[in-house]
Amino acid sequence: MAEELWFRLGHSRSLAHEPFPEVIKPERLHYLHSKWQNSIEYLEESKIVLTMQINGKSRGTILIDKECYEDDAF
Predict the structure, then answer these.
(1) Given the DSSP bridges, would you call strands 57-65 and 47-54 parallel, antiparallel or unpaired?
(2) What pTM was estimated for this model as a whole?
(3) Which of 8, 15, 43, 66 has the highest count of CB atoms within 10 angstroms of its CB?
(4) Alpha helix (H) residue ranges in the chain
(5) Per the UniProt entry, what are the Gene Ontology biological process annotations, in alphabetical order (predicted)?
C-alpha cells in the first residue's frame, strides 16, 4: 500500500530504494516549532463540505468557502 501511495504522489523510484529518513534531533525540533508556530493558517482548510438534507435524508454535499454566508451558499 505504501508503495502505491508513493507512486501516486509522483515519485518515479521505488520506495524500497529511497534512503531512510533522518531522525530529527530535539534541538532541531525547537527551531522548527518556533519557525512555524505562527503559521497555523497553512494547516487550516479554507473550504468545508456542507451536507444537503431534504426531509431529514441526506441528498448530497457541496463544497463551499469557510467564510461563505448562508444566503450565498444557497
Answers:
(1) antiparallel
(2) 0.36
(3) 15
(4) 2-8, 26-36, 70-73
(5) tRNA aminoacylation for protein translation
64/71 Cα distance (integer angstroms)? 12
The whole-angstrom separation of Cα 17 and Cα 43 is 30
Burial per residue of 6-31, b for 16 or more beta-carbon CB atoms within 10 angstroms, e otherwise: beeeeeeeeeeeeeeeeeeeeeeeee
Separation of alpha carbons 15 and 36, rounded Å:
28
Contact 54, 64 (CB under 8 A): no
Average pLDDT of span 47-59: 89
pLDDT of residue 34 exceeding 70, the answer is no
DSSP-based three-state secondary structure for 61 = strand
